[in-house]
DNA sequence: ACAAATTAGTTCGATATGGAAAGAAATCAA
DNA sequence: TTGATTTCTTTCCATATCGAACTAATTTGT
């Protein structure tokens, strides 16, 4: 029987951190997005609405960048949202490759109804932590997230 | 920092934390799972292999619980893995509703080849943080993740 | 001006995921 | 025993996600 890879202290620590981080992020998301999803707007869609509402019309590529997702993805999300009447595409006249996505009145109305309680839920969800802990956690997350991109000198 | 939504300090803090947490978790996952995926094993599949390799045969329901995912989901993941020959289903003789999933020799071999370098990558990825910071981050994540489940008194 | 390279979006195929409902087997109630 | 309920798994449908290949429009190189 393979004895569970009794790793070093360092390894246990890293594995443990990875799991807890993933769990925390998922738990928070589940908790916070529940009501949004119940309102018929998926998390991705809500993110797009957020960007368009607060920033203004954006190209598909920019939206994708903002979400750290691939643009082929945004096509499908925006397709769905367009079908629901939340957003609309508009071709740029100057550069006809570019397509602007803009929020519709309906989208604006729905988003503005969801946003305040969304913020409330987030505040509530993180209130398990003291303000100082929230700051610390954010800082540690930022530091971890900004880890240098490994240029993959790997080879087995 | 031009913030959208001019909210209270508390709200900015919470929103900021939420974003950074999600980003950190995603960045870490992307970074760590890259090689696994390159080896032809999806993150979900790797998780299943991990459980089966280290714990032994499990029912679909238990695997789903372990991953905090829904069981209807596991059916599809296990389907794919069975097709690839990584695992196999075995019906329980006592309770014929139950299906045990077990790792195959092929699955065991593939997993045992991927696991050590996987751990290495994780250690490497979190090494941006000092051991103390890793402990702190894990603790904060745990605390946040264990936030009381809102029993949702709103039964309409 | 025309071919090549680049850029923006889209399409396709595969995987993952969740909710709802169906199927199958076990258990419980009368 | 039979019918109702519960439990485990599957199926169906919709969404999301990514990589690869494709189309269309712009820019660049010669």
Can you offer a commentary on this structure?
The structure is a homodimer of 156-residue chains. By secondary structure, chain A is mainly alpha-helical. Chain A has a domain at 42-142: Winged helix-like DNA-binding domain superfamily/Winged helix DNA-binding domain (Arc Repressor Mutant, subunit A). Helices cover 64% and strands 8% of the residues of chain A. The first copy, chain A, has helices spanning 9-38, 43-55, 60-66, 71-83, 105-126, 131-145, and strands at residues 58-59, 87-91, 99-103. In chain A, strands 1-3-2 form a 3-stranded antiparallel β-sheet. Residues 150-156 of chain A have low confidence and may be disordered. At the A-B interface, helix 1, helix 5 and helix 6 of A face helix 1, helix 5 and helix 6 of B. The first copy, chain A, binds a DNA duplex (30 and 30 nucleotides) through helix 2 and helix 4.
Descriptive tags:
Arc Repressor Mutant, subunit A; homodimer; 6 helices; DNA-binding; mainly alpha; disordered C terminus; 156 residues
């Amino acid at each position: 029987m393979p004895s569970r890879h009794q790793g070093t202290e360092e390894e246990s620590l890293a594995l443990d951190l990875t799991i807890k981080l993933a769990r925390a992020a998922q738990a928070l998301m589940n908790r916070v997005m529940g009501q949004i999803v119940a309102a018929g707007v998926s998390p991705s869609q809500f993110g797009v609405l957020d960007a368009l509402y607060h920033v203004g019309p954006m190209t598909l590529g920019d939206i994708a960048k903002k979400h750290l997702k691939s643009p082929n993805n945004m096509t499908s999300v925006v397709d769905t949202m367009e079908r629901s009447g939340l957003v609309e595409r508009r071709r740029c006249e100057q550069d006809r490759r570019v397509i602007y996505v803009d929020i519709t009145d309906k989208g604006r109305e729905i988003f503005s109804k969801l946003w305040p309680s969304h913020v409330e839920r987030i505040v509530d969800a993180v209130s398990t932590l003291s303000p100082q802990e929230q700051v610390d956690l954010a800082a540690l997350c930022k530091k971890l997230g900004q880890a240098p991109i490994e240029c993959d000198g790997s080879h087995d």
